[in-house]
From TrEMBL, chain A:
Keyword Transport found: yes
All residue ranges annotated as the ABC transporter domain in the record: 5-240, 250-493
Name of the protein: Multidrug ABC transporter ATP-binding protein
Gene3D superfamilies documented for this protein: P-loop containing nucleotide triphosphate hydrolases
Key words, A-Z: ATP-binding, Nucleotide-binding, Repeat, Transport
Native source species: [Actinomadura] parvosata subsp. kistnae
Classification via SUPFAM superfamilies: P-loop containing nucleoside triphosphate hydrolases
Superkingdom assignment: Bacteria
Entries under SMART domains matching the protein: AAA
TrEMBL record, chain B:
Membrane topology: Multi-pass membrane protein
TM ranges: 39-57, 69-88, 94-112, 119-138, 158-184, 210-228, 240-259, 266-288, 294-312
Chief location of this protein within or outside the cell: membrane
Location in or out of the cell: Cell membrane
Record flagged with keyword Transmembrane helix: yes
GO cellular component, one term: plasma membrane
A single GO molecular function term of this UniProt record: transmembrane transporter activity
This protein's UniProt keywords: Cell membrane, Membrane, Transmembrane, Transmembrane helix
Organism: [Actinomadura] parvosata subsp. kistnae
Name this protein carries in UniProt: ATPase
Pfam families per UniProt: BPD_transp_2
Length: 493, 317
């Protein structure tokens, strides 16, 4: 087999940190090759080197046996490699057509002919079967559509090698399936792909080979078929880690969270939900199922049209977050960057926001007591930080999420609602976070877990599956992936 | 629908024309409207400059100081010491090129601090606003420059084909701006940079170079605005341009240019200038006291903003 893309003995340093230390990767022509590793293993750095955005300090990159072009020659790079980055490179204020032909709108002429540009865009969209209006503003597209536009743009440069950097992180189940179908058909057309994901099951589903990076080094490259799941995880973490074992819970009799007759136009209709102490209830469903909207209503972030929410026996005014927190609720919001933490403030402040009133009197916050509380949470959740004074913005994804958990757990809540608790965090952090939920439940709390990831839902005593805004099934513990997904997709057996 | 987004202020302009016509019979005369345009010509160049800088996701407050300082320093390099100059006595024909060059240099220095040293554009240009204005007050010691060379007075006072030259100049530059930002790759690069700087870089746009260009062009346009204003007034006072920047931002923003970058058009900004100019004119015609005009200005800006919010339908940033 021909080697399509190769990086040899790559070293890249950023100041005192070594992001890549003699790393290598070899990708055969026409294969879909996974690159996995924990946060900070050097995956993103390798991507920027393979796409020519950064120059390696040592080592070389070769495409089909030939040395990579000069860094300044962007066009040459784009003919060799295309990348769908983790962070969207779509410009929301511009149209789809212009995004597709960014910085090459005029096709060699001085003046941009907008009509021709739209026609060219439509041609590209048709070629790659992307069902999007070329004149639409990119900002109005869904996440999935934007990604398809990015893929189409990447391919339109003529590259036969595409890097997909965590493309599924923000997609729901059906969208992921559609993406995989598309990837398979690209592979049949002979396109080589490098696939980066934290979801190992996706690696097994879509990739032929896998390369594991750990601590800035290459650990192993294997055929996916010859590499059992446990070994893959062990290669990533450097130690044998068993899959997360959900614990047994013994739900009590007292209902700690109750939603009755909840409806919100366009989100969900007529929902009744109750969670007992010591019980974990899951909410599953596709992105359009309304599960996140429902969870946000339970914590007070959204105001329902009708219905009531009771936390710990107290009727909470709809849409009133402080009241819900006072009643004993802790929650982890969907997007930690958006609602989870204030990046410039310290770990200590972020973790203690909800209980600031308990840390001093007359609106004052005692720094000593805050520090003590923060240190207790840092220890309890094993947050890797220099100390309570480090800004959360400096932490890695997994540790930042732990700070969000700390904020939810700091007041020892009776009700815990977590939305996508393990999004974008690595295997070990994932286990710690799920463990934190179960710890709270063992202390007598009731928990609601909303997640797109089936692994998160395994800790639930029952899973409520939502479809188009309604709860369609209450699945008790012991389900199989296939069963649950079938219900989520609306394919009731 | 999308193509009409630039034109949300057109109903406001029509409304102002109707209201103006009812309030004062002289309002809708050619003479008065020409007057409005001429008064707005200089400030409109600043709006053009600021719009491009805002679209590219940056900020420049110092433009208003350049309006006074660039022509003043250029004039002082030319006129004799007795008239308030430096006594260097460069040829009078050089005064306009010199002024433009000074404006470009101020823009380049702003760009240098903001792009090279990655300083905050807001604070850098705030400091530059103060410093550049100081370079007007220091050398002139606060005095007004009266004895100006002929060449600098020409553009601001000449008539071309029956209209003041300043209107032609502003018109041509706006047309160039609308074309450049609408139909040239370089112009579209401003939107890409302001919309998502990493995406622009990944698309192969030379981000730093384009931004330098925008700051330099901005400074040059501000200097040209100063030249027009100098010609119109026949002298350079030590507060020429002072306070303009608020109107400039108001015009750009009600015209649909986003303070967060990546959004807005030059045509929209032009409608913003016209709204401000018409309001100013109507207030003067109906004899509203100059001391009360700011209250009404401010309110008009807020109302225009609300109208474009309703017409645009989206939250403004």
């Amino acid at each position: 087999m021909n080697i399509h893309v190769e990086a040899r003995n790559v070293v890249k340093r950023f100041g005192p940190t070594t992001a890549l230390n003699g790393a290598k990767i070899e990708i055969a022509e026409g294969e879909t090759h996974a690159l996995v590793g924990r946060n900070g293993a050097g995956k993103s750095t390798l991507v920027s080197i393979l796409t020519g955005l950064q120059r390696p300090d040592e080592g070389e990159v070769r495409f089909s046996g030939q040395a990579a072009p000069a860094l300044a020659d962007r066009d040459a790079w784009r003919q060799r490699v295309a990348c769908v980055y983790q962070k969207s490179t779509i410009i929301p204020a511009l149209t789809v057509a212009e995004n597709l032909f960014l910085n090459r709108q005029s096709d060699g002429h001085a003046r941009i002919n907008w009509r021709k540009l739209r026609a060219r865009a439509r041609e590209v969209l048709d070629t790659y079967e992307v069902d999007v209006d070329a004149q639409a503003l990119a900002g109005d597209l869904s996440v999935e559509q934007r990604q398809l536009v990015e893929i189409a743009r990447a391919l339109s440069f003529g590259a036969r090698f595409i890097i997909l950097d965590e493309p599924t992180a923000r997609l729901d189940g059906p969208a992921i399936e559609r993406l995989f179908t598309r990837m398979r058909s690209l592979r049949e057309q002979g396109v080589t792909m490098m696939y980066i994901s934290h979801h190992l099951d996706e690696v097994y589903e879509i990739c032929q080979s896998v390369t594991v990076f750990r601590d800035a080094r290459h650990v192993t490259t294997r055929r996916v078929a010859d590499l059992p799941h446990d070994e893959l995880v062990a290669a990533m973490t450097g130690e044998a880690t068993a899959a997360y074992e959900a614990r047994e819970h013994t739900p009590g009799e007292r209902v700690v969270l109750r939603g009755a007759g909840l409806s919100l136009t366009g989100r969900y209709t007529d929902i009744d939900i109750s969670v007992k102490e010591g019980e974990v209830v899951g909410l599953a469903g596709s992105a359009s199922s309304g599960k996140v909207g429902l969870a946000e209503t339970l914590v007070g972030l959204r105001k329902p049209d009708t219905g009531t929410v009771e936390v710990n026996g107290t009727r909470v005014r709809p849409g009133d977050v402080p009241a819900a927190i006072r009643a004993g609720l802790g929650f982890v919001p969907e997007d930690r960057h958006h609602e989870g933490f204030v990046p410039l403030l310290s770990v200590g402040e972020n973790a203690t926001f909800p209980i600031a009133r308990k840390l001093g009197r007359y609106g004052l916050v005692s720094p000593a007591r805050r520090r003590a509380t923060a240190e207790r949470m840092i220890a309890a959740l094993d947050i890797k930080t220099e100390g309570p004074d480090q800004p959360v913005g400096d932490l890695s994804g997994g540790n930042a999420q732990k700070v969000v958990f700390a904020r939810a757990l700091v007041d020892d809540p009776t009700v815990l609602v977590v939305i996508n608790p393990t999004a974008g965090v690595d295997v070990k952090a994932k286990q710690a976070l799920l463990g934190a939920v179960e710890d709270a439940v063992e202390r007598g709390a009731g928990a609601v877990v909303v997640s797109d990831e089936l692994d998160d839902l395994r800790i639930c005593d029952r899973v409520l599956v939502m479809f188009h805004g309604r709860v369609v099934k209450d699945v008790p513990r012991g389900w199989t992936d296939h069963e649950l997904v079938a219900v989520m997709e609306g394919m009731e057996e | 629908m999308a193509r009409f987004r630039d034109l949300t202020l057109v109903p406001v302009i029509v409304l102002l024309l109707i209201v103006g016509a009812f309030l004062d019979p002289t309002f809708l005369t050619a003479g008065n409207l020409t007057n409005v345009l001429q008064q707005q010509a200089a400030i409109s160049l600043l709006v053009l400059a600021e719009s491009m800088i805002l679209i590219a996701g940056k900020f420049d407050l110092s433009l208003e100081s350049t309006v006074g300082t660039a022509p003043a320093i250029a004039v002082m390099l030319v006129i004799p010491a007795a008239a308030g100059g430096f006594g260097i006595g460069l040829p009078g024909a050089l005064v306009i090129p010199l002024a433009l060059l000074i404006g470009a240099a101020i823009g380049a220095f702003n760009g240098f601090l903001i792009i090279r040293f990655q300083l905050s554009a807001f604070i850098v240009t705030l400091a530059m606003l103060i410093i550049v204005h100081g370079f007007l007050q220091g050398p002139t010691e606060g005095k007004t420059l009266f004895q100006l060379p002929e060449s600098i007075l020409y553009l601001g006072s000449a008539m071309w084909l029956g209209l003041p030259a300043a209107i032609w100049i502003a018109g041509v530059l706006f047309a160039a701006g609308i074309f450049g930002l609408g139909y040239l790759r370089l112009g579209r690069a401003l939107y890409a940079i302001g919309g998502n700087i990493d995406a622009a870089r990944a698309a192969g746009i030379r981000v730093d170079r384009v931004l330098y260009g925008v700051f330099i062009l901005g400074g040059t346009l501000a200097a040209l605005a100063g030249i027009l204003e100098t010609g119109r007034l026949g002298a350079i006072g030590n507060n020429q341009g002072v306070g303009w920047i608020f109107m400039v931002f108001a015009a750009a923003v009600i015209g649909g240019v986003s303070m967060d970058g990546g959004k807005g058009t030059i045509l929209g900004a032009l409608t913003g200038v016209l709204v401000i100019g018409l309001v100013q004119n109507i207030l003067t015609l109906i004899g509203v006291s100059g001391f009360w005009q700011p209250v009404i200005y401010g309110s008009i800006i807020l109302i225009a903003l609300m109208i474009s919010r309703i017409a645009g339908g989206k939250a403004q940033d």
